[in-house]
Amino acid sequence: MYAEIKDGNITKIVRPGGSYKNISFGKLAQDQEYLDAGLYKLMEETPVTTEYQKLGGEIIAIDEASKTVTRTKEVLGISLEEIEAADKRKAQKARKEAMLAGAPYTLNNTVYQISFTSDDANGLMQVGKAFELGVTSTVVKFENGTTMPVTPAEFSDFAVWFVAERNRFFVN
Question: Where are the chain's structural domains?
Answer without folding.
Answer: 2-77, 100-167
